[in-house]
Write a structure and sequence with these properties.
The protein is an all-beta fold and 333 residues long. The chain has no helices and 32 strands. The strands form 9 sheets. Strands 1-30-29-28 form a 4-stranded antiparallel beta sheet, with no helix packed on it. Strands 2-3-4-5 form a 4-stranded antiparallel beta sheet, with no helix packed on it. It has a 4-stranded antiparallel beta sheet with strand order 6-7-8-9, with no helix packed on it. The chain starts with 8 loop residues before the first strand and ends in an 8-residue tail after the last strand. 38% of the residues are buried.
């Protein structure tokens, strides 16, 4: 892949898999192995130096690093990436053949959500597990706040908080400033200030670093509420993929939006729209999203570029009946 411009969006065409119109999952390991699930509900694992291995009728939903390998939540149970292959997990073989929506490692535990069955904590140290009663049926994502006292989960019934000290799972308030944001918390990300963000039906829900709640719902900042992907860059922006393109919202440390720009076919983004949870941020801050036109790379630093305007060449100034002629100015003067 070679960049030939300073535009923030690049369509990746290094491999035919990247051109699939419905990339359901995209991720990468620390060994630079790409993992991808496509429109045909197959998954692939490979790198620039190796061919992609195909795993038929297998869709990846989530991925987490565990010890010296990776765990995958898939439509056929919990899988592992070991030695460049996707294999069944002996440790979590009870999920074999089951549809698993989430796997997440945090605080010496593996948190697993089997579709329709809520949330289960597997204590690695004590080899015990706990099912949470009265939990929603589906969990999709998880974040650890900077104070490391809790875990936040996005579910089909809003955002939930697990307290490490109290060992309780509770639902966070669904209303912000008197407005309900809905229940489907399909995506999450943490911004550079430590605020944790979730997509909900009516906007962006923010669990601030101090534990208070705020939200972004105004149309001038969020032109669509069909929110498919959510990432945070290293410059204070939220990168939101919707049915209307990519919206870049600059927020301050209090989670207050300061500006918003939406990119679509008219101004540089040719992917049209992203797909639910089909995104990945690498160690360099690049963001990859699956779109209707295949896989795109977003370079957030180019949102920050300020192009110096060309100095005008003043040839004539006319004001009513008087005319003044000036010598042509040199650029920059």
């Amino acid at each position: 892949i070679f960049r030939v411009s300073l535009e923030p969006f690049t369509k990746l065409n290094l491999h035919p898999l990247y051109e699939d119109h419905f990339i359901r999952f995209i991720g990468r390991t620390s060994d630079f192995e790409v993992i991808l699930s496509n429109s045909e509900r197959n998954s692939y694992l490979g790198s620039k130096t190796s061919d992609f291995k195909e795993y038929k009728d297998l869709v990846i939903n989530a991925m987490t690093e565990f010890e010296d390998y990776y765990l995958l939540a898939t439509t056929k149970g919990v899988k592992e990436i070991r030695d460049g292959k996707i294999v069944s997990s002996d440790q979590f073989k009870e999920y074999n053949g089951k549809r698993v929506a989430l796997v997440f490692k945090a605080f010496e535990s593996i948190w697993i959500s089997e579709e329709g069955q809520g949330l289960t904590r597997h204590d690695i140290k004590n080899n015990k597990k706990k099912n949470f009663e009265n939990a929603p049926a589906y969990f999709y994502n998880a974040l650890i706040p900077d104070d490391s006292t809790s875990i936040l989960f996005g579910s089909n019934d809003g955002v939930f908080k697990y307290s490490l000290s109290e060992k309780t799972l509770t639902r966070l308030p669904p209303r912000v400033n008197g407005m309900s944001l809905g229940s489907y918390a399909g995506n999450s990300t943490k911004d550079i200030y430590g605020n944790c963000w979730f997509t909900l039906d009516e906007g962006l829900y923010c669990y601030k670093k101090d534990g208070s709640i705020t939200a972004i719902t105004a149309e001038r900042f969020l032109p669509s509420t069909l929110l498919y992907t959510l990432n945070a860059d290293n410059y204070g922006n939220l990168i939101v993929g919707t049915n209307k393109g990519i919206t870049v919202i600059n927020v301050d440390k209090e989670g207050v939006p300061e500006s918003s720009n939406t990119y679509n076919i008219e101004n540089g983004f040719n992917g049209y729209e992203t797909h639910m949870r089909s995104s990945f941020k690498d160690e360099n801050g690049n963001i990859f999203v699956g779109t209707l036109e295949g896989l795109f790379m977003i370079k957030p630093e180019f949102f920050q570029k300020k192009v110096k305007p060309i100095a005008p060449l003043i040839r004539k100034v006319q004001n009513k009946d008087y005319q003044y002629f000036f010598q042509e100015l040199e650029p920059g003067k």
